[in-house]
């Protein structure tokens, strides 16, 4: 598998195309691809099939910030399934070779559909074939459609293919459905739709070290990206990746009501692990929700429940 090449502007990619080693026959798709879920993977797999047949390379054109951040800046409800780093890792894992991250601005949102096709897909990228999901819209006020693309493709000399609705609808996947599952703590359904475990990444920060006193030390995770969707409060069986090694664990999201003035946190007890890792990064993969967060009368009750949670987590992680 080739490493993913990332271009942080369309000019970077255009420079590549004008260099001594241009990408021949770019096979292109475009979209936000939040979650890189099973529906997205169908598009990516088709892209790879065509690239192999056409002796081309796969190119994904995406946008950052997310269009809703720019067009609706007061929308505090927007939460995303991936950070940019997480999305890049997944796209590389699924075999995309070239990723163009186009800065989304209000000016860009005003491009007509024909300007988008001519200026970006044709002149800058040199698209050989464009693959899109069904009901894909683009350009100012989302005016562009598959019918427009068929018209433009004959005009500008590229091919276009739409993934049929039945191929996507058969698995009934959408980023919205996945977000709703996570917001009620149903990480199992979310993972089924994603085709991989839901993931968060963060830095270990100092907590109040209360967990150590009852035999369950935890790493407190700080998530930098305010748009990253955090699953519902509760206790989860998780996998934890640290420095390339994977461990089992159990994680709590919430306000820790048994412990006074604890505040909302994300903290994980990593099994068979005993290291000081402050300021280091952890990747957390959600396997299953064990229970909702509970308030106990005393720490001994909490300790007993954590023992049960660990047994249940180990059984799930097997």
Strand content: 25-35%
Can you count the helices?
12
Radius of gyration: 23 Å
Q: In this structure, how is the largest beta sheet organized?
A: 6 strands, parallel
Structural class: alpha/beta
> What's the arrangement of strands in the largest beta sheet?
1-4-3-2-5-6
Give the overall average pLDDT: 92
- The general outline is elongated
Series of secondary-structure elements, N-terminal to C-terminal: EHEHEHHEHHEHEHHHEHEEEEEH
Helical residue percent band:
25-40%
How does this model look, in words?
By secondary structure, the chain is an alpha/beta fold. It is elongated and about 75 Å long. It has twelve helices and twelve strands. It has helices spanning 10-17, 38-54, 67-71, 84-93, 106-109, 113-124, 146-156, 165-169, 175-183, 187-194, 210-213, 299-317; strands at 5-7, 26-30, 57-64, 98-103, 129-133, 159-163, 198-205, 219-222, 234-242, 245-254, 265-270, 281-291. Helix 2 links the parallel strand 2 (26-30) and strand 3 (57-64).
């Amino acid at each position: 598998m080739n490493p993913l090449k990332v271009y942080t502007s369309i000019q970077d990619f255009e420079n590549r195309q004008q260099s001594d080693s241009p990408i021949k026959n770019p096979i292109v798709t475009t979209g936000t691809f939040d979650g890189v879920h099973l529906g997205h993977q169908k598009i990516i797999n088709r892209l790879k099939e065509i690239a192999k047949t056409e002796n081309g390379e796969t190119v994904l054109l995406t946008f950052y910030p997310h269009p809703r951040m720019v067009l609706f800046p007061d929308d505090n409800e927007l939460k995303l399934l991936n950070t940019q780093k997480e999305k890049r890792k997944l796209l590389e894992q699924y075999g995309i070779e070239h990723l163009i991250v186009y800065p989304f601005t209000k000016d860009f949102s005003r491009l007509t559909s024909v300007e988008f096709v001519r200026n970006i897909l044709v002149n800058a990228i040199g698209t050989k074939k464009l693959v899109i999901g069904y009901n894909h819209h683009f350009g100012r006020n989302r005016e562009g459609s598959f019918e427009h693309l068929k018209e433009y493709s004959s005009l500008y000399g590229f091919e276009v293919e739409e993934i049929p609705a039945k191929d996507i609808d058969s698995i009934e996947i959408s980023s919205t459905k996945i977000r709703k599952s996570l917001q009620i703590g149903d990480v199992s359904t979310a993972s089924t739709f994603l085709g991989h475990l839901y993931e968060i990444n963060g830095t270990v920060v100092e907590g109040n070290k209360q967990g150590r006193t009852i035999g369950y030390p935890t790493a407190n995770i700080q998530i930098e990206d305010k748009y990253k969707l955090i699953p519902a409060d509760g206790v989860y069986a998780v996998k934890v990746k640290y420095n390339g090694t994977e461990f089992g664990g159990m994680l709590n999201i919430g306000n820790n009501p048994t412990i006074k003035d604890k505040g909302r946190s994300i903290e994980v007890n990593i099994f068979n692990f005993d290291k000081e890792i402050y300021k280091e990064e952890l990747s957390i993969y959600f396997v299953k929700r064990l229970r909702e967060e509970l308030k106990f009368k005393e720490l001994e009750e909490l300790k007993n429940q954590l023992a049960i949670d660990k047994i249940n987590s180990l059984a799930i992680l097997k």
